[in-house]
Amino acid sequence: MYWVIALFDEKTEQLIQEIWKELTVKDISYYEEEINDARPHITIGSYNELDKQKYIKALDEYYEHKKPIDITFNTVGSFLNFGTLFFSPTITRELLNFHSDHHDFFHDFNESANPLYLPDKWIPHCTLANKLSPEKLSQGFKHCLERGDTIKAKITGIALIELVDDSKDCIDAPIVYSKSLLE
């Protein structure tokens, strides 16, 4: 499996990683330890199969002149029946266009795309914890609400990650390609 992810500015990335650590210290979630080299992100697309070299070449071409976009995280949310805790960005026209334009350009790859990440189904989010029991989910919400921080962030890069091995307790999903957006 492959995921195309939007990466954040350094300050936002560090802040999200701090929250991951806080949730670990409080024995709420071990999300940061469940994925090797995890990077805070918003998933733009997911694919079961991919001609990796062809896709990387297209990513390089498509994102050659794209500029960073500002986003604001001011919502804590959860997916029903998954125990996932996340920050959700304010939905702006710029963010929706960033996502839908990506999928328009990469439409040839949509045959193996996960439909949850396609336009009109996508719920943009940055995962803070996953597979939590209702009790741990409640504790995670409380922790995030007590922080009370609205996060002004910037999407500054795009990356392709590949699931290498799903058989261990810790998932390997290394970045196989990344590109910074132009300032």
TrEMBL record:
Gene3D superfamilies: Cyclic phosphodiesterase. GO terms for molecular function: ligase activity. It comes from the Bacteria. The keyword Cell cycle does not apply. Pfam families: 2_5_RNA_ligase2 (PF13563). InterPro entries: Cyclic_Pdiesterase. Keywords: Ligase. PANTHER family: PTHR36039, RNA LIGASE_CYCLIC NUCLEOTIDE PHOSPHODIESTERASE FAMILY PROTEIN (PTHR36039:SF2). This is 2'-5' RNA ligase superfamily protein. It comes from Rossellomorea aquimaris.
